[in-house]
């Protein structure tokens, strides 16, 4: 049974930075696609970034967010810079076998989410 646990969310001012972490347990996910999604109130869950051998980003994240992984720690990170109020959402870590996908339905494993609020 794979478990994903996110951490690092919080309240940050516009223009600030946060780093989210997702620790995996239950199996080694070194060859799995790891991804970050987010869901704002009243909106559908959306792809933010994904990484297997190379990284993919949603247009909203390009140039501001960086996804990375530490296979030795079975952990994936999302470094978020220049945060904007529209980045406010619950951020979810997800994992799947195979290539990166933007489709929520293709991910087999999900964390419980961590809240990110960007506000002055």
H-E string: EEEEEEEEEEE
Number of strands: 11
Number of helical runs? 0
Residue share in helix: under 10%
What is the overall shape?
Answer: globular
Mean of pLDDT: 96
Major sheet description: 7 strands, mixed
What's the end-to-end separation, in Å? 40 Å
Strand content: over 45%
| Uncertain residue ranges | none
Structural class: mainly beta
CA-atom Rg in angstroms:
13 Å
Summary of the model, kept short:
This protein has 120 residues and is mainly beta. It contains no helices and eleven strands. A hairpin with a 4-residue loop joins strand 7 and strand 8.
Describe the structure.
The chain has 120 residues and is an all-beta fold. It is built from no helices and eleven strands. It has strands at 3-7, 10-12, 18-25, 33-39, 46-51, 55-57, 65-70, 75-80, 89-96, 109-110, 114-118. Strands 2, 4, 5, 6, 9, 10 and 11 form a seven-stranded mixed β-sheet that branches. It has a four-stranded antiparallel β-sheet with strand order 1-3-8-7, with no helix packed on it. A hairpin with a 4-residue loop joins strand 7 (65-70) and strand 8 (75-80). It is globular and about 40 Å long. The chain starts with a strand and ends with a strand.
